[in-house]
Write a sequence for this structure.
């Protein structure tokens, strides 16, 4: 298992007391052509501090990034194309494919929806997701989060940030490896 610390964008710090945000990632053994990636985002602050969207029936949904949402970007090898996965604490999720930097966006074909789960331990909380990935590919990985606090403050977190406004699609954010 790999563990990564996310950092807030300098122009969008969280309100109030600082806290840590980290991500644990592991990849299972291959099952034929596919393997699973387990991604668990952990926030070291009470969940009551944040806007936690609810859903009666978790499903595929667009624009999850408008409020509290966690994201994983996977780019195979040195290809310009990549996929984006979004996970909400509600269990809602999204998956997109891009042919290049913010180009050619389509809804990704997903054989089975990800398994998304929310865990609240009173002093920290987390969102985990299990997704299917090709078993023989190695990926550049970008991990990020949008956290909306109860007072409306939004902070944007990533492994690294390029200059300028928050941009999770930028190549500078793909600093981890999966594979």
């Amino acid at each position: 298992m790999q563990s990564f610390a996310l950092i807030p964008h300098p122009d969008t710090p969280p309100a109030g007391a600082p806290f840590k945000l980290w991500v644990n990632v592991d990849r299972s053994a291959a099952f034929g052509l596919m393997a699973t990636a387990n991604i668990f985002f952990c926030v070291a602050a009470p969940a009551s501090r944040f806007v936690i969207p609810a859903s009666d029936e978790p499903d595929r949904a667009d624009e999850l990034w408008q409020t509290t949402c966690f994201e994983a970007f996977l780019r195979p090898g040195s290809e310009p194309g990549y996929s984006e996965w979004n996970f909400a604490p509600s269990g809602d999720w999204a998956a997109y494919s891009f042919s290049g930097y913010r180009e050619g966006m389509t809804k990704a074909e997903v054989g089975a929806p990800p398994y998304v789960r929310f865990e609240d331990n009173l002093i920290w909380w987390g969102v985990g997701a299990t997704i299917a990935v090709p078993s023989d590919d190695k990926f550049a990985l970008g991990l990020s989060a949008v956290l909306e606090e109860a007072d409306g403050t939004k902070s944007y977190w990533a492994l690294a940030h390029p200059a300028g406004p928050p941009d999770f699609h930028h190549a500078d954010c793909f600093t981890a490896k999966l594979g």
